Amino acid sequence: MSREYLLLLILAGFVIVEIYVYQALRVVLRKTKGRLKKVAIGFYWGVPILSLGLLVLTRSVDFGHFGRFLQIGSAFVMFANFVAKLFVFPFLVIDDVRRLFLYIKRLLKKNQIAVVTPESKRISRSAFLAKSGLIMSALPLVSLSYGIIAGAYDYRIRKRRIKLPHLPKAFDGITIAQLSDIHSGSFFNKVAVAGGVEMLLHEKPDLIFFTGDLVNNKTDEVKDYIPIFSKLKAPLGVYSTLGNHDYGDYQSWSSAKAKQQNLMDMLEAHKILGWDLLMNESRLIGEQDEKLAIIGVENWGKGRFAKYGQLDKACEGTEEAAVKLLLSHDPSHWDAQVRIEHPDIDMMFAGHTHGFQFGVEIGQFKWSPSKYIYKQWDDLYQEGKQYLYVNRGFGFIGFPGRVGILPEITIVELVRG
Known about the structure:
The protein is of the alpha/beta class.
């Protein structure tokens, strides 16, 4: 399915939801007259139309940094509006099923005089369900608003200890900090972002890995945050790779040349940051027989996502390494190619899923809609002697916040064992 058809399908879904839920508003406002009724109806239709209009406008016209805030805000309003109205659905369905049952019941009583429920009672039941649905719609609005206020920058340090039998003695106890999915075009609080970077530096890692998606669509989104992220330093270096959003594939460009220039700017941004960007290549660190390979591939995603990664090329020259660590943005790469073709890769670091920026994590219990799309969607996984860690993401995209699944800084310690 092409992107245009998918967008039309999503838009059709929004329209269907709006029309269906509008029936509940009509029931609630049935006895309301005058200006209040007009204001309520105008607000109901005005919010989605205005937010959609702003979203389209900011995607078509460059308003600079202010345009990004408008785009984020309008996207959130559309999303929150849609989710809130989905909460009304069950109540409307119950009412429709109830009235359908009564209608069928009357049809079956052919030899009896149909007893019609008084109009006032029908309205009362429908109004009760409609009002209940509209009240329930406030719950997602509250939780989503809380996710923006409290969850967007509530960075959490997550630590994992991995035993690797072939780890050289020189690297026993080495610590690796991982960031992923910064999405700098979505940020609206520089102070908070800087605080997250300081949290990472406080851990004093030996290595830092960044596993892709520095921006949402265009390289210039990161410009204002280069002074912050350039502070990321580690004794053994900072290594990075590209994610699906870093290529400009989701942006309309005036020409192929303009898109190519955006990618060149992305490569230059990594240089300015002081990060060693691995474009289907590797680096060996260590001495003599005690070497560790850091391998980085361009984005490779199962299904519709772009497959720029060339794993065989990236692994060239790593044969002598005792341990191989792979940076690959999309966790679906692990099952689809890494484990099958390169069982010698000890551990892969990925991101991409964001944990859907929504879910529940209580102790060992974890749930997110992301699990229905990705087999490996967050935290640590193991198959045989190979490991995969999926970072929940440092930033956000679409919904400008997080509910339940909080932004993450990963600290992995490698030990011999």
